[in-house]
Each structure stands twice: as structure tokens, then as C-alpha cells.
Amino acid sequence: MRDDLRSVYAAVFFLVNATYVALIFDLVGRASAGEVSFRERKIMRIRSVATLAIFALAAGVALRFPIAGLAMCCGCLIVYLKPEAPGGEDHA
Asked: How far apart are CA 10 and CA 69, in angstroms?
């Protein structure tokens, strides 16, 4: 039963990240080219979709290998320690 709970945690991370992906696509899509470069937009979109896919995969993996699923979630969360795209901090 505990292993199923770990999978639920991964699914919750997936749902939270899904809302983040929607937010990124909406906000970055509205920003002008002067605010967010094309390269930054592309990196942000790719990273958000990739982490969404990894969270989804982690939810499935956690059913059979709970520690591996947790490790996948932690690996994705490390990406968000620095949420800016490379080069994004230059605009501040």
C-alpha cells in the first residue's frame, strides 16, 4: 500500500507541473521578443514539457520501483532550483 502512495505523490507532482506548463506557455507566449528571447522561450518550453513527461513516467515507475520513482521526481525538482533559462538572468 505504501508503494501506491509514492505513486500518488508522483502523480501530484505531475498535475502541479501540468499547471506550470500551461502557465509557461501562456506567459511566454504573451511576452514580447524584447522581454524573452526566442532561445529562452524554446528552452523554457522544452524543459517544462520534458519534466512533465518525466513526472508522468515516475508515477508509473513508482508503482514497481518506488525509490527509483522518487529519485526521478527529485531529479526533476533539482531543475527548478534555477528556474531561469540560460541567459535569462541577463535581462534583470
From this structure: 7
Residue-wise pLDDT for 36-63, tens only, equals: 777 877 887 888 888 889 888 988 888 8
**Any domain includes 14:** yes
Compute the distance between CA of residue 83 and CA of residue 50 in angstroms, rounded to an integer. Answer: 14
Q: Show the domain range for 55.
A: 2-82
Residue type, 32: S
Q: Are 63 and 7 in contact (CB under 8 A)?
A: yes
Q: Is 63 a member of any domain? A: yes
DSSP state of 12: H
From CA 68, how far away is CA 56, in angstroms rounded?
A: 13
User: Considering the domain boundaries, does residue 20 fall inside one?
Assistant: yes
C-alpha cell at 74: 527529485
What pTM value is reported for the model?
A: 0.69
In a domain, 66, yes or no: yes
